[in-house]
Sequence to fold (138 residues):
Amino acid sequence: MSVTAASAWGRRWGWAVCAAAIVVGAVLPAEWLLGVAPRTSWSLLATLAHGLEFALLTALLAWRLLPPEPSHRASSAAVAVAVAAALALAAAIESLQYPLPYRSFELWDLVADAVGVACAALAVSLVARRRGARAPDR
Fold:
């Protein structure tokens, strides 16, 4: 696969692969994923992982939705849709984990997810604004 083809594939499907990995990781027992059972329900490493995975998902989805022609309104809409979708997935995952005997609903996970989403939204917005500022005037 050429670099251009890989980039096009990543732009088109990267967010879906990321979302699928998050969902699969969220419903499997932690022992299967980590090799051991967590000692506590909260850990700094798990919290950071939540933030990073949702930051990546938000950035990939916003990247997919950004229009080819820079426009502040269209870029803002793309970021807003990415944020809404990522937060909806975070809430759905925690709700899905609630009845599972080997998983639990964790408010801190939602907070970490939201922080990751916000950081990615800010970064994508800044990049989109800069991209729009460099676009030739029409």
Notes: The first helix runs from residue 3 to 27. Residues 3-134 form one domain. The chain has one domain: 3-134.
